[in-house]
Design goal:
Number of strands: 9
CATH superfamily: Alanine racemase
Largest sheet: 9 strands, parallel
CATH topology: TIM Barrel
Bound molecules: pyridoxal-5'-phosphate
Shape: globular
Oligomer: single chain
Number of helices: 9
CATH class: Alpha Beta
Structural class: alpha/beta
Order of helices and strands: HEHEHEHEHEEHEHEHEH
Amino acid sequence: MPVDIRSNLHQVRRRITTAAKRAGRDPSEIILVAVSKTHPPASIRKAIDANCTIFGENKVQEAEEKISEIGRDPAQWHLIGHLQKNKARKAVQLFDVIHSVDSPELAHRLERICEEEGRERLSVFVQVDIAGETTKSGVPETQLQLLVEMLKRCERLNLDGLMVLPPYFADPEATRPYFQRLRAIRDRLAAEGVFANGFGHLSVGMSHDLEVAIEEGATIVRVGTAIFGSR
Ligand SMILES: *Cc1c(COP(=O)(O)O)cnc(C)c1O
């Protein structure tokens, strides 16, 4: 059976709405990022035709090829994967939002490149390494405050939220503590007034655990497999 992207999108939107209502939240406050990594431009076009407007890619090079085919304008492009410093300029040129800022060095470099490229404003999220797994990207909680202080001094980078990529668990309930922890951090930082948008997005939840994420306050879910099929 070929993958029916339109009907998958419909189902994902319904899951979001159902979960939001169950949690007593307004479904319209939850943003869907369709994670199109590994999938071809033709699949992205189908999703655009089904009113999908935001796409997530995890590799700069791959995103560049797709964005050059589809164009910058029909959609918003979010970088959700680890950003190597030598790809920072390309990332500034290509993306609307970067979910994966994880070091003061990277933030500093992005700020400088924005200046050089004449980009007034770049929306960034800090990826937090809740698990403390050194193999995963994300800033360890112990170094988060330093990064946030640094971002506050950046004129062109707008800190708009936090992101976590928990280890994979087959049981979606197992990711709940990660989402709860990130939310507590977000609440504390929001009270300190560090977010450019005031509230601070929570970019949490993927295909198999978006319901749990929405219960725990997700404002952005990043969904790949449930829309585009397996990779
Ligand atoms: C691949 C990926 C997703 C989407 O995962 P699915 O399980 O396919 O929904 C979300 N976030 C990040 C950071 C990813 O790399």
